[in-house]
Design goal:
The chain is 45% helix and 14% strand. It is an alpha+beta fold. The protein has two domains: 154 residues, Four Helix Bundle (Hemerythrin (Met), subunit A) (Up-down Bundle); 93 residues, SCP2 sterol-binding domain (Nonspecific Lipid-transfer Protein, Chain A), CATH 3.30.1050. Strands 5-4-3-6-7 form a five-stranded mixed sheet. The protein has a two-stranded antiparallel ribbon with strand order 1-2. Strand 4 and strand 5 form a beta hairpin. The longest helix has 23 residues. It is globular, with a radius of gyration of 20 Å.
Amino acid sequence: MTVHPSLQPAIDAWTHSIEAISELVTPLVEGEWNRATDCPGWSVRDVVSHVIGFECELLGDPRPIHSLPRDLYHVTSEFARYVEVQVDVRRCHTAPEMTSELEYTIIRRSRQLRNEYRDPETIIRGPLGERSIHRTLTTRVLDVWVHEQDLRRALNKPGNLDSPGASITRDVLLKSLPEVVAKKAKAPANSAVVFDVSGPLEFMRTVRVDAEGNGKLDASVSLGPAVTLSLDWETYLRLAAGRVRPEAVADKVKIDGDRPLAEAVLANFAVTP
């Protein structure tokens, strides 16, 4: 265990999710590694490569020297190009090579996290720039757990929607709701938007917009909200992570109230890079 108790919940959640990924992919035959996922242009192999690559960078390993092909049409930004290098360099790797590298990376990162003695607020440099150790680890929990769910959908192996990683991911995603509602969807001043989420991870949250147009998140029930969005947790995740467009899951989202506002919220719901 780390000497910093504040890091332990995130370390435990990361461990749970990345070991779940290892358990999912270890028995796969070669062809199953090529199954498409909800991530544009990425197969099961590519998702696992991405997870390995980010963890290796946090271990301090040098980035691969690799030129990307020009026909990767899902790569549309500099950040996407940065991420794609770790993915494309492993596209020729066999199933045993993938599973052995994943297992070795988990061992190395687990040891690193177990021996983390620095203050959690120490700023470190990672793939996403300079962030505190605590924020970096929390972001890794979100990324690894969301990709675990990508793999589960691709392989038709549902599960862990209420795991420790799910809870941390929910809390991170909820922090974006005030900006989504108040700034991006431009909800009217002195209005409220309610999110009623069911399933393995149930919760209800209200975003209240004040007279100045600023949003604030709370867990209280709102009387007479402008709109209430009712949906299941997996659909919430897929929308927030940009895995699906709102119109594709319209039958899974119940809207009560101001429909144009609800559609504006859903159109701006994706918050992960």
